[in-house]
Amino acid sequence: MLFDRIVSEGLAHYSYLAGDKNEALVIDPRRDVDVYVEKASNAGMRIAHILETHRNEDYFAGSMELAERTGAEVWHADSQWDYRYGNNVRPGQKWKVGRLEFEAIPTPGHTPGSMSYILRDPTGIPFIVFCGDALFAGEVGRIDLMGPENATENAGLLYDSLFGRLLPLGDEVIVCPAHGSGSVCGELISERLWTTIGLERKHNPRLQARGKPEFVKTLLNSQPERPPYFSRMEKANLAGGPILGALPDIRPLDPKDFQALSEGAQILDTRQELAYSAAHIPGAQSIWLDGLASFAGWFLGYDQPILLVGEGNDHENAARILVRLGFDNIAGFLAGGMLNWHMSGKESASIRTLQVFEICRLPDIGEPPVWILDVRSGSELLKDGRIDGAQHIPLTEIAARMGEVPKNTTVYVFCGSGMRSMVAASFLQARGWKEMAVILGGMAGWRSKKCPIKR
Q1: Which of 47, 195, 294, 401 is the most buried (most CB within 10 A)?
Q2: By C-alpha distance, which of 431, 370, 438, 439 is closest to 400?
Q3: Average pLDDT, the chain
Q4: In CATH, which of 1.10.357.10, 3.30.450.20, 3.40.50.150, 3.40.250.10 is domain 352-448?
Q5: CA distances from 346 to 186, 259, 285, 306, 420 (A)
Q6: 0.70 cut: is pTM over it?
Q7: Beta strands 94-97 and 100-106: pairing type?
């Protein structure tokens, strides 16, 4: 028997490969599909089926990509929508894969036609449920993606799915969701790498609700952010294309060619915040590599080519993350990095940084006024407190609310650590803000220095 969970870092996306004898099946594949083909081939198995739990919003599904490579049949949930590929899953439908059996059970709520799949072992015992975005470790699926007008109905459907179909499967059944901690598909997903029905029944805060009205109210009070690229992913995942074929070979560019192509392009710098602050190409957007999956959809557009700046082979990892989000137009990367840029005599920009002990005494200095921009999320403010006098604009709202940030004074940008602060500062600098400083250490450093916090 073969069973493997494939983790897509950054997106915190989980897909699954299961097989027996000489056949295998993949659930919710990502767009770069080599890993499934290689693992199945190494086990002497052919991928015969591809199952989707729901229409995905946060990444480009790889179902058609994998079907093109393997000849597998694609089966998708949400049959109420006009898919341009694959087959509709029927409630109760079963698939035999060697001695294993998979069965579809409807679990609507996150999407109207979401499906979960029960895996039975060769003796017929149900021991795994692949539940997509219906149930996570410590959290349940979002109910806002069909619009606020449908949220109440969807929350009720999700309650029925969880308490009427998933929890009755039995405490011993292993839960295999489509996402882990860090995903935008759930606010409070736990860091438990594996979980069961019993653990969720006992420890999942959402499942402690005393009846449907309380459950619905709790979800309606939760307002997770919706990245703007979700709409594009929803349309792409109904169409099933375009086929990627393989990860693109990113073209190396010398500084002269890079500069020539930068007109009309987006420059993405994936280095750490200290390297970016010291020197970067004017106009470059900073998003550190490990944060790229979380923030690319907020700060990059699909209509302009992307030029990459990084260190070593960072461009390969960046390209892999970007194509999973549908950013295919990657025009090249700066060969030799910023060292080569400087050796070519090209202009660079910088952003000033301050340590926490320098900034926490500034409110006492007086003139000029100290203007602190706090880009943490609202939930972080509730949990950790806020800096007295700071202006709060979450990082994901900077583009829409940048008019609230003054240009006639120094703006001190603050977050939990300094990483997101640099993302915000780079965005503003590229749009004309000149006097900015990023506070290193963020809230962790602020507390350690006993700077004032307002609860």
Answers
A1: 47
A2: 431
A3: 92
A4: 3.40.250.10
A5: 43, 9, 18, 19, 27
A6: yes
A7: antiparallel
